[in-house]
Amino acid sequence: MSDSAGGGESGGVTGAGQEAEADTEPPHKAPPFTEADSLEVGKASEEGGEPSAKRPKMNEEEQGLEQVAKPVMMDEETAAQGGLLPEDQAPPAQRTTEPPQCEEEGQEEVSISVRGEEECHQNGDGGHDAPLDEGETKLEEKHNDDSPADSPSEGQHLGLDFTQNPQMLTGSWTEYSTVPENYLKGCKWAPDGSCILTNSADNVLRVYNLPPEIYSYNWDLLPEMSPVLRMAEGDTIYDYCWYPKMNSLDPDTCFLASSSRDNPVHVWDAFYGEVRASFRPYNHLDELTAAHSLCFSPDGTQLYCGFDKTVRVFYTDRPGRDCEERPTIVKKQGQSGIISCFGFSPCQSVYACGSYSRCAGLYSCQDGTLLALLPTRHHGGLTHLLFSPDGNYLYTGGRKDPEILCWDLREPGKVVFSLKRNVATNQRIYFDLDLSGRYLLSGDTEGVVSVWDTHTAPPDGNEELLQPQLRFKAHWDCTNGISIHPFMPLLATSSGQRQFPWPGDSEGDSASDGEGGEAVMSPQEIRQDNTLSLWWAGPLGPAAEGGQEQSSAEAEA
């Protein structure tokens, strides 16, 4: 967001004694970006180096494991183009992140079995069962042939690099320490990448601007992030989402929706933090009911709300109580339970609904007709789902369920592979895909973030367990939210969970001095970590890597 959103930068109070996280001095201003100097971006911050005062140091066992893959270079823009001026601290220019469009847009019938390789234009390969060769080769040729001076939109690409642990840049932790047990419940980048939206236990939605120092690579000067907007809901927030066409340069598109218990769906102005409109869903008794899940349609004209065995569709240009009701059970057949999450196919007029009845269904966007009901394979209710960029695959994850399942929608009911993570509570644990569809990232209840390379999945799809390429300790507590920046190699993670006090000794020690009680409570207090963190997941330069090795050697000595 721009500075008018809450009247200030996202700078905060830097921790006392905070030290630079780099051994080498990065450039203070971003030059025209080329592939040759893309390896010079970043700063050295590894586990063996000097810890920053703002975060507790983690031992080497808790930090990332070995990695064995080559970084992928995504065909995306970087922050150095599009008029990003750190001195003006202007929001990034609008970047179109629309999904691939189908060749036949006028088709009336929706087919789940249509192959994405024939229907959609994509960057790179066609999916899991296509090797990563031709698309990436063309991309590399384009890197070598086009110069940034002749073609600013070509040759300026900086992709995710998971051959090493991402390094933490900054975050927000003081904001969540004023209220006891104010743990976070997720974080989501804005569609234009200008800011981050968080949800927390105090029922406040916060908007953070992306620190302008990141554009100029002055990472040693990064302060703690402070929210530029706070939007307080009346009760527990069930779900929230950005308007998909949001662009900071057009204030009329800067809004988001949220749903909370015993309240209508609110549409918030993301520039001033005020309620712009509300959608009021009523049940068959004409009582106001709260939506358990929210999702805008890809074009932003409709807002889908999930209820018990029902989906209600509101039109964003007509606030109020008028809506279209779409029952998920017709004549005792269909998808039961509370609709807990939504996802829209990027390639067809299809949306998916996950429910607490442990299953997912595919529906037509035109009239809500049930197209396919996926088998019940999860052990807990679904809390999050995502389509792959080519629309051929659907990823689903549930609560108290260690698996993320990848479904092949060309053969509805077929599980291609599964991903294991540690989810031991009912909390919603988000996962995210990068724009190429290659990397899937998820946190877990132990604070570890796992990175899977979906292109290493076996082509036969015999439901094998896919091993993570990289695992690293992001937080001391549960890492419940993770979001990948739309076009920069940045990750945002959020952490925290409800803490239950441990019972004390009931055989007489409770009446004595407090040392016994403190000893019992100390493990739980150590694990508490309510933080929003920002991570750099791009390549680091050779000089920076050499500095890391030297720092590691000094630390071991």
Please give the oligomerization state of what you see: single chain
- Give the biggest beta sheet: 5 strands, mixed
Q: In percent terms, what proportion of residues is strand?
A: 25-35%
Strand order of the largest sheet: 20-21-22-23-27
Counted beta strands? 31
| Estimated helix fraction | under 10%
Total of DSSP H or I helical runs spanning 4+ residues: 5
Given helix and strand content, the structural type is: mainly beta
The shape is: globular
Distance between the termini: 46 Å
- Low-pLDDT segments: 2-157, 505-525, 541-557
Average pLDDT: 73
Radius of gyration: 23 Å
Describe the structure.
With 557 residues, the chain is mainly beta. The chain has helices at residues 116-119, 134-145, 213-216, 515-527, 542-556, and strands spanning 167-172, 184-189, 195-200, 204-209, 229-232, 237-242, 255-260, 265-269, 275-279, 293-296, 302-307, 310-315, 324-327, 329-330, 333-334, 339-344, 350-355, 360-364, 370-373, 382-387, 393-398, 403-408, 414-420, 431-433, 439-442, 448-453, 464-466, 470-473, 479-484, 490-495, 532-536. The protein is built from 5 helices and 31 strands. A 5-stranded mixed sheet has the order 20-21-22-23-27, with no helix packed on it. Residues 2-157, 505-525 and 541-557 have low confidence and may be disordered.
Features:
mainly beta; disordered C terminus; five-stranded mixed β-sheet; 557 residues; single chain; four-stranded antiparallel β-sheet
Note the topology.
Layout: H1 116-119, H2 134-145, E1 167-172, E2 184-189, E3 195-200, E4 204-209, H3 213-216, E5 229-232, E6 237-242, E7 255-260, E8 265-269, E9 275-279, E10 293-296, E11 302-307, E12 310-315, E13 324-327, E14 329-330, E15 333-334, E16 339-344, E17 350-355, E18 360-364, E19 370-373, E20 382-387, E21 393-398, E22 403-408, E23 414-420, E24 431-433, E25 439-442, E26 448-453, E27 464-466, E28 470-473, E29 479-484, E30 490-495, H4 515-527, E31 532-536, H5 542-556
Parallel strand pairs: 23-27
Antiparallel strand pairs: 1-31, 2-3, 3-4, 4-5, 6-7, 7-8, 8-9, 10-11, 11-12, 12-13, 14-15, 16-17, 17-18, 18-19, 20-21, 21-22, 22-23, 24-25, 25-26, 26-28, 29-30, 30-31
